[in-house]
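Model it.
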Amino acid sequence: MTVRPDDARLDYARLAAAKLWLITAPTRRTGAGFGDMPYLAHGLYALAAVGCAEVPAVSADEHWRLYINPQWLAATDIPAIGAELAHLLWHLLQEHDGRAFDVGVSVQTRGAWRDAADVTIAEILSGGGLAHALPTAGLLGLPPGRSAEEYYARLSGLPAAGSSGERTAPGTPRAGECGSAADGVPRPYELPPSADLPGLASVAQQAIRRRIAIEFREHVTARGSGAGDGMRWVDSVLDPVVPWPQVLAAAVRSAVSWAAGHTDYTYSRPSRRQAASPSIVLPAMRKPVPSVAIVVDTSGSVDDGLLRQALGEVDSALHSVGVAGGSVTVIACDAAAHVLADVRRARDLRLPGGGGTDLRIGILTAAAIRPRPDVVVVATDGYTLWPDQPPGGMAIVAAMLGRDPELLPPTPRWATRVECIR
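Modeled.
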């Protein structure tokens, strides 16, 4: 391994002391004055230190490498070093680099994003008194308890202090930049992924995030203190919520794929094995294009905007698996069923109806279509009756439209339920 000149000047004992201070809990024997963040241990000891005189103090990249100025490390007291380590580690835990990419952060706007991310970290670290060097929501005139994305939307709309977009709140001491760990923008001093010190693999990063999330939740519960954005992060790691459009599209694609797997024999074209038995006519295998029916609840209680969005997701899913518009039949259903002509895009329909709903009629109408549909997608708010028995030979996907998942009625066990919540 190549040794960088600045690495040899790093005081690794001092760095280790800062990590130990940060994860030590105050006890009757040791007294107060420790970081009391034992849940960060696995993340802290996974960080790789790199001596780098080009940074004012310390920063990190998205590969979990710390870039530490040796002079800053030697001149800074242990608690201040520990506070900076906790600050940078929370950037990595919350994946601020990837989230910055998702909202389009650039070199020009990374200052606003850094402030937005640091505000959320300040809320997490405030309980331990380690957020003194970070901007707070109150200092920047922002409401408390919001996400980094919402803070960024507000801050990026404010007049910038300079053309570079590197904004710092007045009176807020900053040790320096946070590195690409905070915004995903590479710095000239950062090592490439293929360097002698490659950093932490993404699988290992996710494993550490999950372990810290579990221990962080236990720590907060035991202390009985609020954790700001920390608990929101814990929920995203341990109980992730997948956006319903993705779930609905996946359910439709799965149902269509199941139907597409059904094959049959046909004599309309010769078998590929006909040459092996010239005296016997062998049938070929036929894989028909699945047909789809969409039963749309047109009662007055259905959210029209949510319905259009759900139908748009169904359209996209069907297109992705090769189901042409001519293979889709739409049935508008209230107290009666109205079979509409084959359509190309369900989202563009003008739907009749508006009274009460009896989906039993709509589903039975779909089952009576010849040839019978392979897949039936039901878009409804759920306030209806369902058939007692599943219609044979059809996969049913129920897109439940509503504003509160707890208020959505139950669906039959034979239907694949997807909750589409506004």
